User: Which sequence fits this backbone?
């Protein structure tokens, strides 16, 4: 993996210190990645984020290189373990040592006590430690010309993640990804990871957005465009909530609605609405009364017009 990244950088005539400055990662870490010296890298959750950023900067698929990193890291650990362990063969001897029920009970009690101490140590360490949090994208100070950016990163498996105080879902490995809407100018994105003891790690990223907003259309033009759109859906957010609206296969909106914000979507054939907090969203189909999108509050998807049973 490291040789491939180094070769790609050299073919692009890039100096390693220039790459380090561009993606804001220490030169020593990039050199360790290129030389496959994993022992010089920080914890895996950070090192994999470095590999993603490096691969993306060189124009490669970051997911492919993240998987290569995991595989080669495990191979490196196994090799290191095999070379440091000594194989000692002990002669088999018979002993007159007798194991009594009392000794078995004492041994079992010792194992239970030591296991309890180990568990308590782990819980105490978790309680006093803040959760790990790595944000691979976007980089702080990044400039974009789009209306949304994808916030991607990784945290501990049992942590909860919040983007601008809106909780988002993470997968079983602690990886998360979410589209965040931009406004022209400086946009402040706050990513937080919180463990079960409410210990919190926070990262703040500033993204400069510059894009041309679509000019308002003449009312007659709007009427002409909407007269063939037979499906109408209105949504209103009771709390801050992320949604995605798709009309006839085209994504019309993907981002966060503020509390009280309302949106209208039209389509010729169908509209698909996705949200990660259904209890915070109300929806009206074709001018009907607003209804709660989903009662259980989990990730939900609905298609309109609703199919008659």
Assistant:
């Amino acid at each position: 993996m490291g040789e491939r990244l180094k070769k790609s950088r050299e073919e692009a005539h890039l100096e390693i210190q220039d790459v380090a400055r561009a993606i804001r990662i220490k030169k020593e870490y990039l050199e360790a990645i290129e030389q496959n010296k994993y022992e010089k890298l920080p914890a895996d959750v950070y090192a994999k984020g470095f590999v993603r950023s490096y691969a993306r900067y060189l124009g490669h698929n970051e997911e492919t290189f993240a998987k290569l990193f995991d595989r080669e890291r495990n191979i490196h650990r196994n090799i290191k373990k095999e070379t440091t362990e000594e194989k000692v063969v002990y002669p088999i001897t018979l002993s007159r040592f007798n194991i009594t029920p009392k000794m078995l009970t004492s041994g079992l009690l010792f194992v239970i006590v030591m296991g309890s101490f180990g568990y308590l140590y782990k819980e105490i360490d978790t309680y006093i430690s803040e959760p790990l949090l790595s944000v691979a994208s976007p980089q702080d100070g990044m400039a974009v010309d789009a209306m949304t950016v994808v916030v991607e990163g990784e945290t501990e498996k049992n942590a909860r993640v919040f983007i601008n105080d809106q909780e988002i879902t993470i997968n079983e490995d602690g990886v998360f990804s979410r589209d965040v809407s931009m406004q022209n100018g400086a946009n402040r994105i706050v990513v937080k990871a919180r463990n079960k003891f409410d210990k919190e790690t926070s990262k703040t990223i500033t993204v400069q957005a510059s894009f041309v907003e679509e000019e308002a259309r003449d009312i007659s033009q709007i009427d002409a465009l909407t007269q063939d759109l037979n499906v109408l859906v209105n949504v209103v957010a009771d709390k801050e909530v992320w949604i995605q609206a798709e009309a006839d296969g085209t994504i019309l909106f993907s981002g966060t609605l503020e509390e009280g914000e309302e949106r209208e979507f039209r389509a010729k054939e169908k509209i698909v609405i996705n949200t990660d907090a259904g209890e915070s969203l109300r929806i009206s189909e074709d001018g009907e009364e607003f209804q709660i999108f989903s009662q259980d509050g989990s990730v939900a998807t609905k298609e309109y017009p609703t199919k008659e049973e």
Remarks:
- The chain has three domains: 2-84, 133-209, 219-304.
- The longest helix spans residues 101-128.
- Residues 29 and 41 are 6 Å apart (CA to CA).
- Residues 85-90, 215-220 have pLDDT under 50 and may be disordered.
